[in-house]
Design brief:
The protein is an alpha+beta fold. It has 2 domains: 120 residues; 80 residues, Rod shape-determining protein MreC, domain 1 (Thrombin, subunit H), CATH 2.40.10. Helix content is 62%, strand content 14%. It contains 2 helices and 6 strands. A 6-stranded antiparallel barrel has the order 1-2-5-4-3-6. The N and C termini lie far apart (164 Å). The model has no long low-confidence stretch (mean pLDDT 77).
Length: 258
């Protein structure tokens, strides 16, 4: 009997505990659901904000790329404009120079016309005078050329005479100190060379010249034949310190002091 009573009390106590638990659980469920819904709404809001920010960032990147391209295009156009401006400025300077020359030529022409009018000569007389002037210039040039030729021949003969009539200890032909040339042809079999200096440059028969390369003495040659702009020379025995090549420099071995 007591066991039955105890069992009944235990069952009643269990129902009471379950009722209390059910009551507490039933009152907390709405709060939990509300918290869940609130967190869900916050999460959705954050996702929406994130997507919006992402879209704005993508748009900003696109705008930046476009701006950079526009800036590059603008810089390119600016460079082209500067280049055109420089070209135009250069062209303007050239035109100014040509204009100045044209004005100077015009002034010279005006002066010539004024001088012609002041002379009182006819056009035919001016043409004749100009022809006589040109003929006189040609004649003077011919005489001057012949005079220079004979002067060179005289100096060459004098230098050669000095070799035999001068100081016995200095019996050699002196060449102009500024005479400088090069070897243009070498004949190793017969030991002669051709130089690119001749009578017009001051080369004289029997004159001796030193052959050098890179500032070093290679040989010495003596001129045997002289033409207008070239000479033929022989290598001096005992002075050949190395092979002689085309392009080697030649300078007077005995330069004149005058």
């Amino acid at each position: 009997m007591l066991l039955r009573i105890a069992l009944i009390l235990a069952i009643l106590a269990g129902f009471g505990t379950a009722g209390v638990a059910y009551y507490e659980f039933s009152t907390q469920i709405p709060a939990i659901q509300k918290q869940r819904d609130t967190e869900k709404d916050l999460k959705n809001s954050e996702i929406t904000a994130h997507n919006k920010t992402k879209a704005e960032l993508k748009k900003t990147q696109g705008d930046l790329a476009q701006t950079q391209q526009e800036l590059s295009d603008t810089k390119s156009e600016r460079d082209k404009a500067l280049a055109r401006a420089d070209a135009q400025a250069k062209r303007a300077d050239e035109l100014d120079s040509k204009l100045s020359k044209a004005n100077a030529d015009l002034q010279d022409s005006q002066n010539e016309v004024a001088a012609y009018k002041a002379s009182g000569l006819s056009a035919d007389e001016v043409v004749k005078l100009n022809k006589n002037y040109l003929d006189a210039r040609k004649a003077i040039a011919a005489v001057t050329g012949e005079r220079d030729l004979w002067n060179r021949k005289y100096k060459a003969v004098k230098l050669r005479l000095d070799k035999y009539e001068g100081d016995p200890d200095q019996q050699f032909v002196k060449l102009p100190s500024n005479l400088k040339g090069a070897i243009v042809l070498v004949d190793p079999k017969w030991d002669f060379v051709v130089l690119n200096v001749g009578e017009e440059q001051g080369a004289v028969q029997e004159g001796e010249m030193l052959v050098s390369r890179d500032g070093k003495l290679v040989a010495k040659v003596v001129i045997r034949a002289v033409e207008k702009n070239r000479s033929v020379a022989n290598l001096v025995p005992g002075w050949k310190l190395g092979d002689v090549f085309e392009g080697d420099v030649v300078t007077p071995a005995h330069p004149s002091s005058t």
